[in-house]
Amino acid sequence: MERSLKNVVVVSCGFFFLFLAYGGLQNLQSSLYSEDGLGVATLSTLYSSVLLSSMFLPPILIKRCGCKWTIVGSMCCYVTFCLGNFHANWYTLISTSILLGMGAGPLWSAQSTYLTILGNLQAEKVGKLGKDVVNQYFGIFFLIFQSSGVWGNLISSLVFGRTHSEGPVSQGQLTSCGANDCPMAPEATNVTHRPSQQLIYTLLGIYTGSGVLAILLVAIFLEPVAEKPKKQGKKRTKSPPFWSTLLSTFKLFRDKRLCLLILLPVYSGLQLGFLAGEYTRSYVTCALGIHFVGYVMICFSAFTSLCSLLYGKISKYTGRAVLYVLGAATQLSCIIVLLLWSPTTSQLPVFFILSGLWGMADAVWQTQNNALYGVLFEENKEAAFANYRLGEALGFVIAFGYSSFLCVNTKLYILFSVLSVAMVAYGIVEHLEYRAVCKVFAAKGKSQGEEDEEDEGGKMRTEM
Questions:
Q1: Alpha-carbon dihedral of residues 339, 341, 342, 343, nearest 10 degrees?
Q2: Counting CB atoms within 10 angstroms of each CB, which of 145, 331, 333, 459 has the fewest?
Q3: Which domains does the chain have, with CATH numbers?
């Protein structure tokens, strides 16, 4: 047990240091590079690249390189993005964002596959249900991983806190904050004041060092893990051909459960894209200033981190359906408030409350979506998690793609609609799974009854 948990902690800490850098940098892109929409264009390109890499690369790299070295190689792509920000322009940011995106799909698929295999092997050792151990491991992972946002955003706020204040926000700018913010308005009043280049270099230096530390940690301390073959006595099967592995991501769409569930990762990407692109810019930066972005996002990261651990522990008692309903109800409530609320500097606690509640809901999507895909598609884990990352990347691409064209209130209506449809589709999958389980139990009961009748008949014949 100690060895298994050690590997969970190592991969979690690796992701902690990597996303301490990337997460903080992502949250600042739309505010730092608002001129000509460079920030959101970078993020849109990044997740378009994630979309492509999720389609093809994960099953191939995981089978050829193993989960550990896929993670290490992918982490290197993230560090190049930090380096690209040192000389930020259209060429450096777009090219390094493409490279990061090519590594992101394999990175997350390898992480999910690694934890699922590790959880199932540990469950087999201790005689527990695989899904319970997998849920627990994902809960530990997301507790450590999501806490990276606390420290990454704290660093950015402390560094940018040295920026001289530009004075109080004018009433004219406040009227364009929140749901009223429209990028295509004739006169843009939502103006971001950029920190000095020296402060930006200081922050990027800290983030780059954190990314390098993540790579070394995983490369040195993480143990490779391989899934045990299902049947030991059979001959060793040949590795599937290249094109079969390549197309395995798409072949899984033959399963209607995957088609129904695809909106869950799409929504996960949409809501995180809204938080990183719109909430940080149109609410926090607009009304409070860029130095408050980190503090507000700390609240989000703290709540999603703690709730990830909580949900991982209580899911075996409540069931995943209860947690999905909780997450949907919380986020739908936040969307309604964001539609109606006009942010002002005098309402500082509201910014933190909303980000905390958003984090509570996000913890459901992060822990339960991963565990759900691992349990339902256990035989095709690599392809299933590749599809999951593909859907999430599609959500990010859509969120950042329309960021420069649609008003914030329109984006909130889209979030509301997609979440509502996604929950209906998820409910259908749970119903299908319930019916399948009932059929299995009914078949077992019928066969057991037939065996009892045969035993009874044999006993009667013996007595006669």
A1: -110
A2: 459
A3: 2-165+172-224+248-463 (1.20.1250.20)
- 99, 107 contact by CB (below 8 A): no
Q: Hey, what are 33's tokens?
A: 């590079």
The C-alpha atoms of residue 153 and residue 147 are separated, in whole angstroms, by 10
| Cα–Cα distance for residue pair 67/58, rounded to 1 Å | 10
Place of tokens 């589709």: 425
One-letter-per-residue 3-state SS of 10-75:
HHHHHHHHHHHHHHHHHHHHHHHCCHHHHHHHHHHHHHHHHHHHHHHHHHHHHHHHHHHHHHHHHH
Handedness of CA 36, 99, 143, 152 (dihedral sign): negative
**Count H helices, E strands: the chain?**
16, 0
What is the model's pLDDT at position 189? 47
Contact 138, 115 (CB under 8 A): yes
Q: Report the alpha-carbon distance of residue 376 to residue 406 in Å, rounded.
A: 36
Number of Cα atoms under 13 Å in the Cβ half of residue 322? 8
Look at residue 210 in the predicted model and tell me its pLDDT. 93
**In 3D, which of 276, 272, 357, 298 has the Cα closest to residue 149?**
298
First to last CA, the chain: 57
Helix or strand (DSSP H, E) at 104:
helix 90-126
Q: Which two tokens stand for residue 142?
A: 């997301």
Question: Are 47 and 400 contacting, i.e. CB atoms less than 8 angstroms apart?
Answer: yes
In the block, tokens 């301390």 appear at 221
Helix, strand, coil percentages in the chain from 3-state DSSP, rounded to 5: 85, 0, 15
Residues of the chain with pLDDT under 70: 1, 30-31, 34, 36, 162-173, 184-193, 227-250, 382, 440-464
Residue 401 C-beta-side C-alpha neighbours within 13 Å: 13
The reported pLDDT for the residue numbered 182 is: 82
Q: Count Cβ atoms below 10 Å from residue 450 Cβ, excluding itself.
A: 10
Using CA atoms, how far apart are residues 128 and 441, in angstroms rounded to an integer? Answer: 20
Amino acid identity, residue 310? L
pTM metric for this prediction: 0.71
Within 10 Å of residue 406's Cβ, how many Cβ atoms? 17
Q: Which two tokens stand for residue 394?
A: 């599609």
